[in-house]
Predict the structure.
Amino acid sequence: MTPAQKTEVIELLKEKFSQYNNFYITDTESLTVAQVGNLRRHCFDKQVEMKVAKNTLIKKALESIDAEKYSGIMDSLNHVTALMFSDSPKEPAVIISAFRKDNKGERPVLKAAFINGDVFIGDNQLTALKNIKTKNELIGEVLGLLQSPAKRVIAALLHNAETKGGSAEAPSAPETPAADASAPEAPAAE
């Protein structure tokens, strides 16, 4: 690889690291060419970008962006490395798990994941990453919690109306007593 090609790869990687808040570092060693092609198809179908690059070029790209921010994942850059970039923090974990299940294997191995500034190291983190809730899932849960009390009040009102002989009229307000005529008037201002 010529120095110009290396610079081109570093610039491409810097662009990807800047574009995505979530990326996974995996070890695809011992996967066949057909398996890697299949993994790329799964990634493409789920809008996950997969890039394979030399570890030294990945390190240079990360160091040139922010060496301190990415220091936690530098030790994971060894052996054969495939990067998975995604807008979703959990989609690459789902892809890796499904791929392993379909191929009855242990590859690709999760070496590290960088999720919105948090670093997850090791293949044992895969299950936790698979269960991360996305922003849309969290918003849906909050909306569901907010709607729940209102739905219960409406259901109770409807049930109450049905039990009073099927009439859906609103209950009348209690009558207020008329002002007592014998009550003393306030003195007039002079």
Remarks:
- The radius of gyration is 31 Å.
- Residues 93 and 130 are 5 Å apart (CA to CA).
